[in-house]
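Subject: complex prediction, re-run

Hi both,

The earlier run crashed halfway through, so I resubmitted it with identical inputs.
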Amino acid sequence: MQNKINLERGFSTPEFEERLIKAQDVMQQYKLDGLLLTTPQNIRYFTGYDSQFWESPTRPWFVVVPASGKPIGIVPEIGESEFKKTWLEDIKTWPSPRPEDEGISILKSTINDLKKTYGQIGAEIGKEMAMRMPVRDLFKLKEIVKTNIVDGSDAIWEMRMIKTNAEVERIKHICSIASDAYYDLPSKLKIGDTEREAVNKLKIDIINRGADNVPFMPGISGKGGVSQIVCGPSDKVIENGDILFIDTGSTFDGYFCDFDRNFAFGSTTSEVEKVYEILWHATDAGINAAKPGASTFDIFNAMNKIISDGNTVGNNVGRLGHGLGLQLTEPPSHRPGDNTIIKENMVLTIEPGMEYANGKMIVHEENVIIRKDGAELITKRAPKEIPIIK
Amino acid sequence: MQNKINLERGFSTPEFEERLIKAQDVMQQYKLDGLLLTTPQNIRYFTGYDSQFWESPTRPWFVVVPASGKPIGIVPEIGESEFKKTWLEDIKTWPSPRPEDEGISILKSTINDLKKTYGQIGAEIGKEMAMRMPVRDLFKLKEIVKTNIVDGSDAIWEMRMIKTNAEVERIKHICSIASDAYYDLPSKLKIGDTEREAVNKLKIDIINRGADNVPFMPGISGKGGVSQIVCGPSDKVIENGDILFIDTGSTFDGYFCDFDRNFAFGSTTSEVEKVYEILWHATDAGINAAKPGASTFDIFNAMNKIISDGNTVGNNVGRLGHGLGLQLTEPPSHRPGDNTIIKENMVLTIEPGMEYANGKMIVHEENVIIRKDGAELITKRAPKEIPIIK
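This time it finished cleanly. Structure:
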């Protein structure tokens, strides 16, 4: 329970004002008269509003951020009383469900009322974004508004990629909670646990330590490594010689950590030990390469050189780390072709992986925040040698 | 731990064949040459494939269901090995992330290869659906495929609204787990708990009893009722005279329950007792009205009559229940204007609520499966009198 510190949830009005100023600056750069937002993360970023009702796809929620002035909320009546507690002043509602006009007519007049400087607004229609509204309604909206709806995702990511201090505090907090839970996990694991049992031990500990939620926790085991890292846990019993890979995206106040750990059961092999050590050093190289002015490709190369020297079979992950924040994964990606320039206050994963033999993969992962002089590690570094569960 | 029965996760190939036959029948009715699927729930419905990686928005996943023949998977390389374990035979991959062509060129050729009978395919662009892909890529796709992409949501909901026996089994199982956890909760609650502490007690118990996940668990308290049911829990301390409302959408093998419970702390008032009783009877009326041949409006009316007689101030929820299954809420909605005809094997919530005084709301909820002769209750009925936590 050592993580139950008094980091308050929620953000101050000056925090949202700071975000809005940054947004309006970026909007001018991208020649946008406004932003149309529909996803929980983007709405939360600009308003602080969070809802359990995101889980129900019935009702869309909208926020319009104008090029000047405060964001405007357009929300189903069921959310009105709580939305009024945000720093927003202009909140419009409609009685939902109402499929024939699920907020679209209010959205139309709100968008048409925006000051038209550039004649276009940005929506979440591009990079690593999926709108949370029926596309049919977006088509309808495009026809009835007197402005162009263009891709606003690059503008949105440009803001969200650089974290404020208050955002960093939350990410550090959830990283600390998960780090401590991972650290205590070996004492709770035993040969004969199923993958699901092992995962639940960690999940419950993370909840008890003060996390809000655990939306992401794959747990996969295999002899000397795992064949994949995207599905699981299953009811497979973990046996002598297995390696258990657990990854987690747990959240505090909406913000994610994203890092994994590996545990050997019973015994290990010199090959596993060697691969684990290579990845540990690749992680170091990635952390050292992650500094303002470097590119995501530089970070990739620093890790990839060490992995390649270690005779990897391949890696189907497609990248060696990425951004994180209100989402488990956010731009940029450490991979050839991304070439984003690293800036102060980006929060990134450093995630080298190796398939060292067919179907035997080991992946390491740590989280860092970029400071003026380089990366600050915000996870408690994985042990240099793979922990062995007896 | 009494719910840890041996209901296996995952479905048999005959189950998917049955779903496919139903789908292809509906597709013919809607004159569709295929379905383009992107959401976790729709992909899981047709393939059984589940992934922790849905949580990362970086990579889209696609399934095309042709009017004849088996579904085709188009998935990022990272998911290939696990996707190959599904009953699908035709699986195409691309190295992702690759934002300049995130699966779109393979999707194009797959769609163009479909037999063209009607010249149109259905996508998740309508009712209560949001596509899980960048809309920009959908625009691009619309331009490069030789078929029309139209709204397929009505066709998809027509299938998914009627549950198979195997689906019903899973929903019943998670309802049973949550019912037992709710039943045991009063012994764990105490005056002075925060809303968050109360919620976590239930959440951890539900996980320990064998649920896979708890994506939805609002917990809100207030004097004599709650002012809203969409946000929370917070760190508010629950005091004498408060009512704690907890709702949960927990999952087993992808399938949701969705029902709530109310707990009075310390003492209660005759007004609360009366409202609770009215809602208990309204629930009864809703359950009795839910039978094949009735409409969602009939179910609404049966409950609404009792609520109106009880002098409700209003209800901003906009409906008195809905469908559930792979999603927390699915069509239909018990509300004026919906008018869906109830059929055998629909799974529905019966959810009457009353704001009996300004800011004081109580909501009841149970889940039923529609049988030939009427509704079968699949939650353990809320107690007839509100439980009081001393």
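Chain A has two domains: 13-160, 162-389.

- K.
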